[in-house]
Design a protein that fits this description.
The complex is a heterodimer of chains A (264) and B (214). Chain A is built from ten helices and six strands. Chain A has 264 residues and is an alpha/beta fold. Chain A has a six-stranded parallel sheet with strand order 3-2-1-4-5-6, sandwiched between helices. In chain A, helix 2 crosses helix 9 and helix 3 packs parallel to helix 9 (209-218). The radius of gyration of chain A is 21 Å and the shape is globular. Chain A starts with a helix and ends with a helix. The mean pLDDT of chain A is 91. Chain B is mainly alpha-helical. In chain B, helix 1 packs across helix 6 and helix 5 (138-157) crosses helix 6. Chain B is extended and about 70 Å long. The chains are: A alpha/beta (264), B mainly alpha (214). At the A-B interface, helix 1, helix 3, helix 4, helix 5 and helix 7 of A face helix 2, helix 4 and helix 6 of B.
Chain lengths: 264, 214
């Protein structure tokens, strides 16, 4: 039962006390600093649009990073508006908005809801992103600035497999070249999104677990922010070693089986 | 703490349901298939119900029925849209000469939409970013040439069935290995991603449920 063994090893590694010898956070804080720099450069009371479309399956990987980014934005005086273009993203956005309201951040956020049509909905929202039934001070501020995506100083795209920052770059940026985009994505999207960071189409990107943990560690933790527990380093190390052992064993068995055929 | 559940009775109940579902899914690891299948059906049922509600409340009612009933003259495009949907829904029994132009219109529209974005948003800016700029210094030029060489070799690997010389064939072979290397690196990212999700679930059981983690 290798699967059960893996679960037991991960459980044991999770229970062991954290050690400074094993660090998951990337010591190269360039990516983390880029996002912190963008957030620190926001004007007071900036309106930030959060395009919230993570997958249900992979959100657990970026949850701590996303919450750190939301805390960071609010600590810098930003007001946040959440919009989703995928059904899964909407479900998670509703849960996060509920959590933020319980944490007393309700006055600083607006729920712009779900926009159907995926990329077509994204394009439609460039001109009008505030639904008629959206209420609150933040929604009114967006309406006062025209109600379009141009009203926002920054867009934070929380990416998933169905709709990632790539869709925003391809469909929104050509229509709104002045828009400032930053993204948080699960690790598997790193190869897809990294070129946009190098070309300057994305101003910051956290798309690996190590960069996400480095960022979450860099953002000061509020007393109320007990929900921001990053992935632990020790179980990740144990899991990676186990996976490497399994892969190595499989490769060795394959080589051993192939050797007689080659010799023959 | 995952933060989704409140510390009251409702939150406790939610945690217990999440724990039972997690353990139920993991029962597959010890060879239990029945619980796993039941949970798959539960997920499919919940997802379908959620999507149906989302479609009714966010699309059908506010964007179709309400405008049609209350303000039809100001939404003239809704009538051809409804006709398009009717044609697509009846595609099985309508004559092909009716369905084919509509299907072609929809497919071409969606393709043009996606392709336009890919060219303007990705292809052209990425080509511009990949141009070798001598002003970036030695490392920038070397990076540029390495990227160019890899791109050409990988593109050669996709030449199937066309006549090749020995040089092109060798280049295509190297391109295939580079492609395999790239896919392997992506697999590594995927492995880290999935492992972190498993660690997160273990932490949920140990922390949120059993309270063993601080």
């Amino acid at each position: 039962m290798p699967s059960l063994g893996l679960l037991l090893v991960l459980a044991l590694a999770s229970l062991l006390p954290a050690s400074d010898a094993v660090q998951l956070a990337n010591p190269d804080a360039t990516r983390s600093d880029e996002l912190r720099g963008v957030v620190a450069g926001l004007p007071p009371n900036a309106l930030v649009l959060v395009g919230f479309d993570p997958d249900l399956g992979t959100y657990g990987e970026i949850r701590a990073t996303v919450r750190a980014a939301l805390d960071d934005l609010i600590a810098h005086g930003a007001r946040l508006a959440f919009v989703s273009f995928t059904p899964e993203g909407r479900a998670l956005a509703a849960a996060e908005l509920d959590r933020m309201r319980r944490a007393g951040q309700g006055a600083l956020i607006a729920d712009l809801g779900f926009v159907a049509g995926s990329e077509a909905g994204l394009v439609r929202s460039v001109a009008d992103v505030v639904p008629a039934d959206a209420v609150g001070a933040v929604a009114d501020s967006i309406r006062a600035r025209g109600g379009a995506m141009g009203a926002f100083t920054l867009v934070l795209v929380v990416s998933g497999g169905d709709l990632s920052a790539r869709s925003w770059i391809e469909q929104v940026r050509p229509r709104l070249p002045s828009i400032s985009l930053v993204a948080i994505a699960p690790t598997f999207l790193e190869p897809e999104l990294a070129p946009y960071l190098r070309s300057g189409q994305l101003h910051a990107l956290l798309a690996t677990l190590r960069d996400g943990v480095a960022y979450a560690n860099a953002v000061p933790v509020d007393q109320s922010a007990v929900t921001r527990r990053p992935i632990s380093a020790l179980p990740m190390l144990a899991g990676m070693l186990l996976a490497l052992t399994l892969m190595g064993g499989s490769a060795l068995r394959r080589l051993a089986r192939g050797a007689p055929r080659g010799a023959g | 703490m995952n933060g989704f559940f409140t510390p009251d009775l409702v939150g406790g109940l939610g945690t217990w349901v999440a724990v039972l579902l997690t353990v139920g899914v993991w029962s597959y690891a010890v060879g239990e298939r029945t619980i796993f299948r039941l949970l798959q059906l539960l997920l499919a049922g919940l997802a379908t119900g959620y999507l149906a509600l989302l479609a009714i409340h966010h699309v059908l009612l506010p964007r179709l029925l309400v405008p049609l009933v209350t303000d039809a003259p100001n939404h003239p495009l809704l009538f051809p849209a409804v006709a398009l949907v009717a044609v697509m829904a009846g595609a099985a029994w309508l004559p092909r000469r009716v369905v084919a132009p509509v299907a072609a219109l929809l497919v071409a529209g969606v393709a043009a939409f996606a392709l336009g974005g890919a060219i303007v948003g990705t292809l052209l800016p990425q080509m511009a970013a990949a141009l070798i700029d001598p002003a970036t210094g030695g490392s920038g030029v070397i990076d540029g040439f390495v990227a160019l060489a890899i791109t050409i070799l990988v593109l050669l690997a996709f030449l199937h069935g066309s006549p090749r010389g020995r040089f092109v064939q060798r280049g295509a072979g190297i391109g295939r290995w580079l492609l395999i290397g790239g896919i392997g690196a992506w697999f590594g990212f995927l492995l880290v991603s999935r492992l972190s999700l498993l660690v997160d679930r273990v932490a949920f059981l140990l922390g949120d449920w059993l309270g063993l983690l601080r």
